[in-house]
């Protein structure tokens, strides 16, 4: 079939966006991975698919696939591209929409200045629900958080565990530029105590309202920015007593602003969404 798509990015985290309302999109994991392949396909970190809603109180269903073809629960940068796409394509006459993902409803709003603000929902902080298997581990309390020791390779790292619908393990490093992201990242991603794997965040505290962040993403490797990873890092930093809301998150591909008022409250993310080109591909 000839598949129409739009190439987009949010702070350098790049996406293939597909309208599955007007196209029949039912691909295998291998086909999703082929589309995302940067040599044999279009190339992207994730594929975002726009479906009709399955409930009356939402505007769209949003399915997300990593570049390895795995379907996942949430994509923060993708949620900003999603609302820009449906507005630009005339799939809605709204600028603030409710979108159902695998495990949550999020609410992205396209602002007049072209930036997008998203209510990402409340973080899940209970380790077993991340999911993280803490049994037999001695967590290290810090502020309102608990840091969990992970043996990765020859080193031991202390991580906060947070779910934004998808799982995150966040550690503080002195300097993100010299942090062993490409070495430690895959070891954290595949650590056996994360039965669904995990996104590995490396956070440098610049000041109480500013971090630098690199994320080795589950199913995609290091990306230039990670929306849910930014939310998880700010939640972890606030819980540890290291950060105060709102926080400027400086990623390699751009900046996001994250605000969180505390447990049970939604994480609010603001950032860019850019359309790069339209295309068609035979698949
Ligand atoms: N790799 C993530 C999904 C994409 C998240 C990221 N691109 C974002 O902006 O939140 C996972 O497997 O949970």
**Regarding quaternary structure, how should these chains be classified?**
single chain
Calculate the mean pLDDT score and round it: 97
- Report the C-alpha radius of gyration, rounded: 18 Å
- CATH topology description of the largest domain: Diaminopimelate Epimerase, Chain A, domain 1
Helix content: 10-25%
Strand content: 35-45%
Ligands (ions, cofactors included): 2,6-diaminopimelic acid
- Please tally the β strands and state the result: 19
Count of runs of 4 or more consecutive helical residues: 4
CATH C-level category of the largest domain? Alpha Beta
The first-to-last residue Cα distance is 5 Å
The dominant shape is globular
Low-confidence segments: none
Number of structural units classed as domains? 2
Spell the H/E element sequence: EEHEEEHEEEEEEEHEEEHEEEE
At CATH level 2, the architecture of the largest domain is Roll
Structural class: alpha+beta
| Sheet with the most strands, sense and barrel status | 19 strands, mixed
User: CATH H-level name of the largest domain... which superfamily?
Assistant: Diaminopimelate Epimerase, Chain A, domain 1
Protein name: Diaminopimelate epimerase
GO cellular component, one term: cytosol
InterPro entries: DAP_epimerase_AS (IPR018510), DAP_epimerase_DapF (IPR001653)
Main location: cytoplasm
